[in-house]
Specification:
Blueprint: E1 11-18, H1 22-36, E2 40-47, H2 50-54, E3 65-70, H3 78-86, E4 94-100, H4 105-113, E5 118-121, H5 126-138
Helix pairs in contact: 1-5
Length: about 140
């Protein structure tokens, strides 16, 4: 007899999009959810600034987190958010992609030094974002 196979456990990933531009937030949310599902279970939230993201207990779970983080935001820029995340215990559960309008090499190097896993300079192609995000998501436990 063929048993109904238990559904394959799909990887669960939490995705945060932190960007002060509402249009970019909703565009990225739709797009990222679209290409990560159905391969994984996606719990996606968007935040309009670093402060609201850091203050939200949602990102303190033990699951892996994929964070798409805008470099330039009011109040607290992406580099500061990145620094704060990397100071947390178990910060390796965060995979962080920086989006930056800053093309200067030192800004990109700074982001990488502070622990960004990848970065894209704006304007970026959605296809490129997809490739990079999928690569990071694949490597998540």
């Amino acid at each position: 007899a063929v048993h109904a196979a238990a559904p394959a456990v799909t990887k669960k990933v939490r995705v945060a999009i932190v960007d002060d531009d509402a249009m970019i937030r909703s565009l990225l949310a739709e797009y990222v959810k679209g290409f990560l599902e159905p391969a994984m279970q996606v719990d996606l939230r968007t935040f309009r600034d670093g402060v609201s993201f850091l203050n939200d207990p949602w990102h303190q779970g033990s699951e892996p987190y994929l964070i798409i983080l805008d470099g330039i935001m009011p109040e607290m820029d992406g580099l500061e958010v990145l620094q704060r995340l990397r100071q947390l215990p178990e910060s390796e559960r965060y995979r962080i992609v920086m989006l930056t309008g800053r093309k200067e090499e030192q800004d990109i190097l700074k982001a990488l030094e502070l622990g960004a896993d990848d970065y894209l300079t704006k304007p970026f192609s959605l296809k490129e974002l997809e490739t990079r995000v999928k690569r990071l998501a694949q490597g998540m436990k």
